[in-house]
Design brief:
By secondary structure, the chain is of the alpha/beta class. The protein is built from two helices and five strands, in the order E-H-E-E-E-H-E. It has a five-stranded parallel β-sheet with strand order 3-2-1-4-5, with helices on one face. The radius of gyration is 14 Å and the shape is globular. The protein starts with a strand and ends in a 20-residue tail after the last strand. The relative contact order is 0.19.
């Protein structure tokens, strides 16, 4: 099974890359190659906003978009993809500026 993970070098995306690689998935990571890569992944060096046709020829079973900040990020990656079965967008409030409006403020569980 082929999996594309955006990021793959820190926080959730790194752990996702490690988890799926250890379980035998063919894991591709898309990042700028500015940090050490998880062992066993296939690196696609690039910026989601300037990918051209690089991803068009690869079919991914799952695209895990873990480094998304806004709608333009989603649209640019989506437009650069070829075929895929599932697209999963994962984000957290950590992507928002600390002095900006947080989407889930004051919720305690």
């Amino acid at each position: 099974m082929k999996l594309l993970i955006t990021g793959g070098t820190t926080f959730v995306s790194k752990y996702a890359a490690e988890y799926f690689t250890a379980r035998g998935y063919e894991v591709y990571v898309l990042n700028r190659n500015s940090k050490p890569q998880v062992e066993g992944v296939r690196l696609i060096v690039g910026d989601r906003h300037h990918l051209g046709d690089e991803l068009k020829s690869i079919h991914f079973d799952i695209v895990a978009d873990i480094t998304v900040y806004d709608a333009k990020d989603i649209i640019d990656l989506y437009d650069a993809l070829g075929s895929f079965d599932q697209y999963i967008m994962i984000s957290s409030s950590a992507v928002y500026p600390e002095n900006g409006m947080q989407p889930l403020r004051g919720i305690c569980i």
